[in-house]
Amino acid sequence: AEEVKAELLKKYPPKVARKRAKQILINEALENETPEISANVRTIPGIITMRGCTYAGCKGVIMGPTRDIVNLVHGPIGCSFYAWLTRRNQTDAGPDGENYMNYCFSTDMQEQDIIFGGEKKLAAAIQEAYDLFHPRSIAVFATCPVGLIGDDIHTVAAKMKEKLGDCNVYAFSCEGYKGVSQSAGHHIANNQVFRHIVGENDEVKPGKFKINLLGEYNIGGDGFEIDRLFEKCGITCISTFSGNSTYDQFASAHTADLNAVMCHRSINYVADMLETKFGIPWIKVNFIGAAATAKSLRKIAEYFGDKKLIARVEEVIAEEMPAVEAVAAEVRPRTEGKTAMMFVGGSRAHHYKELFNEMGMKTIAAGYEFGHRDDYEGRRVIPDIRVDADSRNIEEIEVEADPTRYQPRKSPKELEALEKAGYQFKYYDGLIPDMDNGTLVIDDLNQYEAEKLVELIKPDIFCAGIKEKFSVQKLGVPMKQLHSYDSGGPYAGFQGAVNFYREIDRLVSSKVWGYLKAPWQRDPQLSASYNY
Ligand code: CFM
Ligand code: HCA
User: Fold this and answer.
1) How far apart are CA 100 and CA 93, in angstroms?
2) Could you report the predicted ipTM of this complex, rounded to two decimals?
3) Ligand 2 atom index nearest CA of 483
4) How far, in Å, CA of 296 to CA of 277, rounded?
């Protein structure tokens, strides 16, 4: 690992190498002692990062999967076009059939708007969207130029909300440059959803065990599989943030009794705010991997402490597991001992490690595009994280207990009893302590390093996104997209695990990669350089 690290750094000028060295870690985690990594810091200009922008995190990731909010992008058309159906978040159109996801709403800013200001054009676009569709809600997203010229999108939104009367209009200052990555966009989105939507609908849905699922975006239908399991167990999901969700789900999220947080990187802000304002506790869950799914369902049942629910969850697990175990046993002779590398956004590199484990595969290098230190080291390090100018640039909203609706779901005594029995609230582990010693953990991996890593270590499979897909495959290593799942999925829950085992087995067992040599690599005489 030392040699690999040195090799990755060799090409950089000394100053760049020093900075990257802090983001390339050879794991030597000991029990209760996790090495520190540098994360959530600016990418060095000139490096081709895997990251996206703040607008992508806000508009695409958090708000994109909600079907009945019109997402209006204020900016040049390119920004809207890029964000149009690029993420494989699935949705059902629901009984009302209201679904704006397949539309692309944009103010299509032109040079003259940049010079004279785009506020009037924005107001007209909101009016036009309203006249055409009469949606419940319109969300406005700022792109880079909007911040640069200083359009006041919040005032425009507030005025239009008042004018329209029956449509909730609000805006997100999520200019692409606002933070160092998509992560800033998550925070900005969470703040505004909490401020403008959560708590707007006090209607209480029937159900004995009511939860919200936070940080699940229904990529490739993951959310459908998790919903299937909840229904089977008798757990009512009030609101999913934000896979297959509606405006009303967010609006009534405060009526749930537990927040189960899947991707904590993108949404832990909402979990904290829901607890402070309404008294709903939160726990970390993970539905990637069969064992993790069983554990998460048990954790939810234990929280409610109802004997019938606990028994039902056990029944469901017992019913689902045989099919999963059968496929795991079938693929294992081929997958056992194989190696994987995973570089995904902010939580999948950790979650998917579980699925690979179940196939007997070893994760030898992993990291996040935009994770923070707590995603690597565990939530306990949050107080030690130095708040730099870039983080300070993102608003932290002050939340207080709601004067009429705050209601602690568990008494301090009940919470204490659960915690004494080993139950963990408000906590998640980091990736580093879960990785083997001597493996590599790398933050904000870039195109150059990705190719170097593959050349040097030749893993059996490399997992990342579309930008890495073909360059890695050209090096003769199978590549699986863990963002979009290529065209596959779901991979969550029990049925998802089966899908994943089969897909990865196909990829790592295929002989086709061995044939991936250019003719001159096999026959040097065909190479132009043969006579040198
Ligand atoms: Fe959470 Fe996500 Fe991810 Fe993320 Fe993303 Fe995504 Fe991802 Mo792509 S919310 S951090 S910003 S799990 S879009 S569904 S796959 S980078 S690892
Ligand atoms: C984003 C979305 C993305 C991109 C995936 C990729 C996704 O960050 O803007 O690079 O292939 O999951 O769709 O992360």
Assistant:
1) 9
2) 0.98
3) 12
4) 25
pTM of the entire predicted model:
0.96
Please give the biggest Cα pair distance in the chain: 85
Count the Cβ atoms, other than its own, within 10 Å of residue 59. 30
Please state the separation of Cα 163 from the chain's center in Å.
35
What separation in Å is there between the alpha carbon of 488 and the centre of ligand 1? 16
Q: From the alpha carbon of 57, which atom of ligand 2 is closest? A: 9
pLDDT digits (tens, 9 = 90+) for 103-152: 999 999 999 999 999 999 999 999 999 999 999 999 999 999 999 999 99
- Spatial CB neighbours of 315, under 8 Å, sequence gap ≥ 6: none
Distance of CA 87 from the midpoint of ligand 2 (Å)? 6
Condensed to tens digits (0 to 9), the pLDDT of residues 493-527 reads 999 999 999 999 999 999 998 888 777 778 877 77
Side chain identity, residue 329: A
User: Which among 461, 472, 466 is positioned nearest to 352, based on CA atoms?
Assistant: 461
Q: Compute the residue count for the chain.
A: 532
Domains of the chain: 54-179 (3.40.50.1980), 210-331+379-420 (3.40.50.1980)
For ligand 2, the distance from its centroid to the CA atom of residue 355, given in whole angstroms, is 21
Among 89, 98, 104, smallest CA distance to 69 is for 98
Instruction: Note if 56 is an active site residue.
Output: yes
Helices (H), 150-263: 153-164, 182-196, 222-233, 247-251
DSSP per position, 66-78? BTTEEEEEES-HH
Whether the CB-CB separation of 400 and 67 falls below 8 Å is answered with no
Cα separation, 48 vs 469, in Å, equals 15
- Ligand 1 near 187 CB (within 6 A): no
Hey, whose CA ends up nearest to atom 7 of ligand 1? 345
Hey, whose CA ends up nearest to atom 16 of ligand 1? Answer: 345
